[in-house]
Each structure stands twice: as C-alpha cells, then as structure tokens.
Amino acid sequence: MPQFDPATTLQTIGLPRRLTASTLVAHYAQALSRDIRLAALPGLAATTGWCGLWIRGDDEVDHIFVDQATTAVSTLETHVVAHEIGHIAAGHDQGVTAEAGLIAMLKERFPTLPPHVIVRAVMARTTYELQAEHEAERFATLVMARASLQSGTSFGRAAARMFISWKEPTS
Ligand SMILES: [Zn+2]
Prior knowledge:
This protein has helices at 6-13, 21-32, 44-48, 74-90, 100-109, 127-150, 154-164; strands at 35-41, 52-57, 61-67, 117-121. The protein has a four-stranded mixed sheet, covered by helices on one side. By secondary structure, the protein is α+β, with helices and mostly antiparallel strands. It has seven helices and four strands; from the N terminus they run ααβαββααβαα. Helix 1 (6-13) crosses helix 6 (127-150), helix 4 crosses helix 6 and helix 6 runs antiparallel to helix 7 (154-164). The protein has one domain. The two termini are 17 Å apart. Zinc ion is lined by residues 83, 87, 122, 133, 136. Zinc ion (ZN) is lined by residues 83, 87, 122, 133, 136.
C-alpha cells in the first residue's frame, strides 16, 4: 500500500471555508483532479449496515453514497463523506475487488449504481482493509477537528480536543 499520511494530506489540500459534505466533495475533487459525485441512497444502512459507500466506476467517476437518513444530521454526513474521501485521497482502490455477491446485492437494491464498479465500504475483511479503514477514519477525524477549530467558538475548541484525542486502534 502506498504511504498515506492523513495529517499531511489535510495540511496540503486544506478545507473549504464553509465545510459541508458538498463543499468538501467539491474541494477534494478539484485538488485531486477527480470527478467525485455525492448522492444519498434511501435504505443504504438498512440494506448493508454502512452509512457510506465509495464506488469507482469503469469511467473513473468516484461516487460517494450516503444513507439518506445521514443527510438529516449535517455533521454526521460530513464525517461519513470525509471518511470516503480519505479512501480516495489514499488511493485505497488498489488491489481491491468487491465480492460478486456484494455487487449483485447492491445492483438489485440500488439499480442506479454504475454497471462495473470497485467498492470500498466500511468493512474490514483483511489486514489490508483494516489498515485502510484506520487511515480513512483518521483522515475524517482530523477533518472534523479542523472544522471545529475553524468555527472559532469555545464549543468548537472543545469539540476539536475531543476529535484530536482520538487514538489509532492498536494492532
Ligand atoms: Zn472505510
């Protein structure tokens, strides 16, 4: 796996002035020179158990899907989207192939998905994927800490301390 340093990536690319799921997607799409599209899927969590899903199509478009219910809580949606962007920024698609059964289930349940896809999701099946999940979640945590600090309020500073105290799981 190529080296991915979430803190350095965040330092280099930064954050949009007003952080939302949409502005985060637009900011990183431009910085990474990728076509990243965000959409909500009703029933994603109920069907798969995941709040978010990243799918890269054969057309090289990155689709980030969040559960429809996630969009009702903007900080949760932003966190979920930041996690998936962490995977994209880290290049976590390498060597990953989704199980045929998973693809079939997703296509049946969500017929608008692209025809040929690489799927990354909140699952840890192998050591590779476990490390990838830690990296993506570390990135999301740092994004939320930075955004909390940028709010310039005492609540924001307290929230940032909470995020920054988040520890890497020991393996
Ligand atoms: Zn993940």
